[in-house]
Specification:
It contains five helices and six strands. With 125 residues, the chain is of the alpha+beta class. It has a single domain, classed as Orthogonal Bundle (Arc Repressor Mutant, subunit A).
Length: 125
């Protein structure tokens, strides 16, 4: 289980996080994301085929390493943008000597929180 220092339980499991971080393409994507980017921008910047990029982005979002947000466009063609969802990842032994992972999250602005809520609503519909 992933421990979130803000108190929210995260659905990502230890192995999911470790697998994502063990993937060289995933690490390349994480290193490249210094601002929100679309999948096609990530594909171009990281020199990874588009179909592979989508699989890696799914792996990283499942591991709670990236967040997917909807970028609202005036033309009505909204798109997904990806941003880093962590400041620090720690792997440690808990009181029962079981491996755990803790992900420290950056503070979100009101705009970022709203975008995250919108992305969750989109997933449910």
């Amino acid at each position: 289980m992933v421990r979130d220092p803000l108190g929210a339980e995260d659905p990502a499991e230890l192995q999911t996080v470790l697998d994502a971080l063990n993937d060289s393409d995933c690490r390349r994507i994480v290193r490249q994301l210094d601002e929100p980017m679309t999948a096609s921008e990530i594909s171009t910047e990281c020199d990874i085929p588009t179909s592979t990029t989508y699989r890696k982005l799914e792996r990283l979002t499942d591991a709670s390493i990236l967040t997917e947000q909807t970028a609202i466009r005036t033309d009505g063609h909204h798109t997904s943008e990806y941003t880093l969802a962590f400041e620090e990842v720690k792997v440690f032994l808990d009181e029962q000597r079981q491996f755990e992972v803790s992900i420290s999250r950056p503070t979100q602005s009101a705009e970022e929180q709203l975008a995250g809520l919108w992305a969750e609503v989109r997933k449910e519909t």
